[in-house]
């Protein structure tokens, strides 16, 4: 646990030890508070988002935050799950629903251009951005595992097409999958740096041009 989190955690009431003794916390909508935390982590990353930042944007007291979500790391883990369900599932759907790996990747890249530049919320991908300058090993490792799992899923889909004869037998599934992962991660950062949807879609077109044909 990072030192900043330790200091903030130290002032929190122990869970299940009567932390409500000073008065009953006011009620709040948990789903709304979680969404606000998600946006904070998405915008600023894990390390730069403090507990005080979270209580401010979530509009709840520190005791309520710890009672409802646990510590900062536990809250972040729930945020990542929520992000994957609400905002980050387009890639999995594309791979599962399209008839070929190439079609799935094409859809994934095109939808990434849309999702990463959507108005009214932070740009890019939370799972990619939240790891920047992260000094909490457990969080850094968890995010790395998610990114690598995404690449592994792409590789598996490509390998299946090679086995089915839909891609040439010499296709290097692992290399092509990592190339796709690099494109997705690069598009995320480009979006955060101000690239438009159209500019990212143009990158997707170039990325698809290197794909082998069956």
From TrEMBL:
Keyword Transcription: yes
Keywords: DNA-binding, Transcription, Transcription regulation
Region (Disordered): 1-26
Gene3D superfamilies named among the record's database cross-references: Homeodomain-like, Tetracycline Repressor, domain 2
Annotated region of DNA binding: 50-69
UniProt keyword Protein biosynthesis present: no
Domain HTH tetR-type, residue spans: 27-87
Xref: InterPro entries: DNA-bd_HTH_TetR-type_CS, Homeodomain-like_sf, HTH_TetR, Tet_transcr_reg_TetR-rel_C_sf
Protein name according to UniProt: TetR/AcrR family transcriptional regulator
Organism: Streptomyces lancefieldiae
């Amino acid at each position: 646990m990072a030192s900043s989190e330790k200091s903030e955690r130290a002032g929190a009431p122990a869970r299940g030890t009567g932390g409500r003794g000073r008065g009953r916390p006011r009620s709040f909508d948990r789903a709304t508070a979680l969404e606000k935390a998600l946006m904070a982590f998405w915008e600023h990353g894990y390390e730069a988002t403090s507990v005080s930042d979270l209580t401010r944007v979530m509009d709840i007291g520190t005791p309520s935050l710890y009672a409802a979500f646990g510590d900062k790391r536990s809250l972040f883990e729930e945020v990542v799950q929520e992000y994957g369900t609400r905002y980050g599932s387009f890639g999995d759907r594309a791979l599962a629903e399209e008839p070929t790996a190439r079609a799935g990747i094409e859809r994934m890249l095109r939808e990434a251009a849309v999702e990463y530049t959507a108005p009214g919320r932070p740009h890019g991908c939370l799972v990619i951005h939240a790891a920047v300058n992260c000094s909490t090993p457990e969080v850094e490792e968890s995010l790395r595992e998610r990114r690598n799992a995404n690449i592994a899923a792409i590789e598996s889909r490509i390998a299946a097409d090679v086995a089915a004869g839909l891609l040439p037998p010499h296709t290097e599934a692992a290399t092509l999958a990592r190339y796709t992962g690099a494109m997705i991660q690069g598009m995320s950062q480009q979006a955060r740096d101000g690239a438009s949807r159209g500019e990212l879609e143009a990158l997707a077109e170039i990325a698809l041009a290197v794909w082998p044909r069956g």
